[in-house]
């Protein structure tokens, strides 16, 4: 069966995902698109050479009989409404992060999906499909360095535009670490604190950058994540887990080494699109195959989206208060008990 996909939001990642479905993945085709900015939809189809129907809005696209699954790649605050409409129509949804911008919004989606009675939603937390993170997961699951004690991460972007705000460092950027570390450690968060070091001179006046986020888990693992969005030198994702008997780290992105002018150097990527290209391919291929072969998506669930949002809300509160803020999560409903895949 070919899964017929409708895309809501034809901006940067919408176009990336449309292109990978048409050029690299199997089992699906793009048949419909919509964007609040109709010119963006026109341009995306033209640029990518795709023939699809342009609908006036998400509801019309969801209602289309020849659309089996929806990609939600609009702005974060618009996700919740579209996902709820798709669930009401009983259609599968791949929703980019964040699932919704508040924990309440995510919970409303969880409830709607549970009432529908079958999993329909997969959230775009692609890092668990990245080969480096998959190797880390395997190392931790097989206890190679003993029990984890501490985790140190960095999430660095070379620059951001003026629309990027201090809270987005949490809800848009840190949210990837929130999800992937929860998956890696299989341990719930219990508290969050945010510290602001000296401000980077490259940060715009309204933006507090960098930020250091401390998370603590139920078993006592202490996590430190640096989020820097004006680091200038490249797009750099680091993760190191200190265990009782050793340390495991995320591998560096493969790059040739250059010996020249008395220097030995390697390249650092500049863009998230390239850093996670394989992970995006795998997450969408998994979505397409799992809905067409098993009838439910097997990747990160709406519950994972909710867990990330609860944690993100606590970090946002901690940004304001400067204090350690508690995080309390209900236990996972039976409906979501099947563990999301570690894609070996
Ligand atoms: P963008 O601004 O390039 O594109 C968003 C598009 O959605 C725009 O064309 C806009 O007109 C359209 N749009 C907004 N509201 C809409 C609505 N209600 N209905 C239809 N269209 C609507 O943004 P970008 O970078 O593509 O990000 C989109 C989403 O993807 C965000 O939630 C972002 O956090 C996420 N994202 C995820 C990444 C990842 O690594 N997983 C990487 C980049 C973005
Ligand atoms: C962007 O929206 C993403 O999701 C990227 O993966 C992340 O690294 C970046 O910081 C976000 O703004």
Structural features, described:
This protein is α/β, with parallel strands linked by helices. It has 10 helices and 15 strands. The protein has 2 domains: 3-127 and 278-302 and 333-342, NAD(P)-binding Rossmann-like Domain (Rossmann fold, 3-Layer(aba) Sandwich); 131-275 and 308-326, Dihydrodipicolinate Reductase, domain 2, CATH 3.30.360. The protein has helices spanning 12-23, 38-48, 58-63, 76-88, 103-116, 131-141, 168-185, 272-275, 277-293, 302-321; strands spanning 3-8, 28-34, 53-54, 69-72, 92-95, 121-123, 148-156, 189-195, 211-217, 222-228, 236-243, 247-249, 257-260, 263-266, 325-326. The strands form 3 sheets. A 7-stranded mixed β-sheet has the order 12-11-7-10-9-8-15, covered by helices on one side. A 6-stranded parallel β-sheet has the order 3-2-1-4-5-6, sandwiched between helices. Helix 6 crosses helix 7. The protein starts with a strand and ends in an 18-residue tail after the last strand. 43% of the residues are buried. Bound molecules: 1,4-dihydronicotinamide adenine dinucleotide and (2R,3S,4s,5R,6S)-2,3,4,5,6-pentahydroxycyclohexanone. The site of 1,4-dihydronicotinamide adenine dinucleotide (NAI) has 24 residues, from helix 1 and helix 4.
């Amino acid at each position: 069966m070919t899964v017929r996909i409708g895309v809501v939001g034809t901006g940067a990642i919408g176009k990336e995902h449309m292109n990978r479905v048409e050029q690299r993945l199997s089992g699906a085709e793009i048949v419909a698109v919509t964007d609040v900015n109709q010119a963006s939809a026109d341009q995306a189809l033209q640029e990518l050479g795709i023939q699809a129907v342009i609908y006036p809005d998400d509801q019309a696209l969801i209602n289309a009989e020849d659309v089996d699954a929806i990609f939600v790649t609009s702005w974060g605050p618009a996700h919740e409404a579209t996902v709820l409409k798709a669930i009401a129509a009983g259609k599968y949804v791949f929703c980019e992060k964040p699932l919704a911008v508040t924990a309440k919004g995510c919970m409303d989606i969880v409830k709607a999906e549970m009432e529908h009675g079958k999993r329909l939603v997969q959230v775009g937390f692609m890092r668990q499909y990245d080969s480096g993170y998959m190797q880390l997961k395997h190392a931790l699951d097989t206890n190679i360095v003993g029990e984890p004690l501490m985790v140190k991460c960095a999430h660095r972007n070379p620059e951001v535009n003026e629309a990027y705000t201090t809270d987005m460092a949490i809800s848009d950027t840190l949210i990837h670490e929130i999800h992937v570390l929860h998956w890696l450690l299989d341990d719930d968060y219990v508290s969050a604190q945010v510290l602001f070091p000296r401000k980077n001179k490259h940060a715009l006046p309204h933006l507090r950058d960098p930020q250091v986020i401390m998370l603590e888990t139920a078993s006592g693992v202490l996590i430190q994540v640096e989020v820097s969005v004006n680091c200038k030198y490249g797009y750099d994702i680091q993760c190191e887990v200190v265990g009782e008997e050793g340390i495991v780290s995320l591998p560096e992105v493969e790059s040739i080494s250059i010996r020249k002018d008395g220097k030995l150097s390697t390249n650092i990527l500049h863009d998230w699109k390239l850093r996670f290209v394989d992970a995006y391919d795998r997450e969408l291929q998994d979505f397409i195959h799992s809905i067409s072969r098993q009838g439910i998506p097997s990747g990160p669930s709406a519950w994972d989206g909710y867990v990330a949002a609860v944690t993100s809300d606590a970090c946002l509160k901690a940004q304001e208060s400067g204090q350690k803020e508690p995080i309390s999560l209900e236990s996972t409903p039976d409906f979501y008990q099947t563990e999301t895949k570690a894609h070996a």
